[in-house]
Write a structure and sequence with these properties.
Radius of gyration: 20 Å
Order of helices and strands: EEEHEHEHEEEHHEEHHEHEHH
Strand order of the largest sheet: 3-2-1-4-5
CATH topology of the largest domain: Nucleotidyltransferase, domain 5
Structural class: alpha/beta
Helix content: 40-55%
Bound molecules: adenosine monophosphate, magnesium ion
Strand content: 15-25%
Number of helices: 10
Number of domains: 2
CATH superfamily of the largest domain: ATPase, nucleotide binding domain
Length: 330
């Protein structure tokens, strides 16, 4: 018989609630996304107020659309971290309230693990090298010995922050990734930019400064967008390739909001083919932050025995994914 789990995501700009079945069917995935004013980034407190206002309508949309009665929910999962404190707290309060009123277990989920496990479930990938590229993360990851291990990461900005800060410098509102992708598609003039790979880590801060300077010097947004994409995506593709060669895995998956970018997918696809590895990307609707990543990973955790008493549940702004024991993988 199917079991149902409700998941709440609220780590950053997105407040989302999803109901997923034990077979991995996503029955609903309602969301509301906080949009900061043009030219500025996420203000954690403002985002948390937006989440507070969205909580009741998003919850009722998710439960209504799922066709599942509240009494059939077996557990409630929430994103415990990493993320912005005020935003995390809104999701935790909603999840605690629902779990208490239904009298079902509460399951804490690591948001980054959520991106990976949902991506694997939706694409059928089993044991991949993961490129996690989002507003909050830039990491190359693979599973070994009971945990997802970090084989490379950004030493400063995430790839999402690089794109968003560059776009905001041009006057766009965050998130800017899609607008940069569209502008880049109109150019093929590469302007030289710093390419910074250190060991198996990447650094984007010099690239951001140099790209802003090119805009300030009058270069076109289209040419600089093309050049920043070519440079940053080549950097993450290089470190993913090294991780693939090192681990000998046969699958690669891109997860996180930047996975939506077609140029990144093409570069990663060429690289994966060279190693006879299968490349998968989370479908667009589920590559960015969403309740489904929390609900599905919550189900995996819950069926492995993970839950927390409501009175002891907490949020953790910095919670590295390589500190999470993964009981559901062998
Ligand atoms: P997430 O934190 O997983 O929700 O991802 C949000 C990030 O994905 C933001 O930094 C966006 O700018 C970025 N993003 C969304 N769509 C695209 C795209 N088509 N190309 C590049 N980045 C994107
Ligand atoms: Mg995310």
């Amino acid at each position: 018989m199917s079991r149902y789990i409700l998941g709440v995501e609220s780590t950053a700009h997105t407040f989302s609630v999803s109901i997923v079945s034990s077979e991995g069917k996503i029955l609903s995935n309602a969301k509301s996304v906080y949009k900061p004013p043009e030219g500025s980034g996420i203000h954690p407190f403002e985002a948390s107020l937006s989440h507070l206002a969205s909580a009741a309508p998003v919850l009722s949309e998710a439960t209504g659309a799922s066709g599942v009665g509240m009494r059939d929910i077996s557990a409630v999962a929430y994103a415990k971290g990493p993320g912005l404190g005020p935003c995390l707290r809104v999701g935790a309060v909603v999840a605690r309230t629902v779990a208490s009123s239904l009298g079902v277990p509460l399951v804490p989920v690591n948001h980054a693990v959520g991106h990976i496990e949902l991506g694997c479930m939706l694409t059928g990938v089993r044991d991949p090298v993961v490129l996690l590229v989002s507003g909050g993360h830039t990491m190359i990851i693979a599973y070994a010995g009971g945990r997802w291990r970090i084989l490379g990461e950004s030493l400063d900005l995430t790839l999402g922050q690089l794109l968003d800060q560059f776009g905001r410098h041009h006057g766009l509102a965050s998130p800017c990734g899609r607008a940069i992708e569209e502008a880049a598609a109109g150019s093929s003039s590469y302007l030289r930019l710093p390419y910074s790979v250190k060991g198996n880590d990447v650094s984007f801060s010099g690239l951001l400064t140099a790209s802003k300077k090119l805009l300030d010097a009058g270069k076109s947004f289209s040419d600089v967008s093309y050049s920043i994409q070519e440079t940053a995506f080549a950097m993450v593709t290089e470190v993913t390739e090294r991780a693939l060669a090192f681990t000998g895995k046969r699958e690669v998956i891109i997860v996180g909001g930047v996975a939506a970018n077609r140029r990144l997918s093409r570069m990663m696809s060429t690289m994966s083919a060279r190693h006879s590895a299968r490349l998968a990307a989370a479908p667009l609707e589920y590559s960015g932050d969403c309740g489904a990543q929390i609900a599905w990973t919550g189900w995996l955790a819950y069926k492995s025995g993970v839950s927390v008493p409501v009175a002891e549940s907490e949020v953790t702004q910095s919670w590295r994914l390589d500190s999470v024991d993964i009981a559901w993988r062998n």
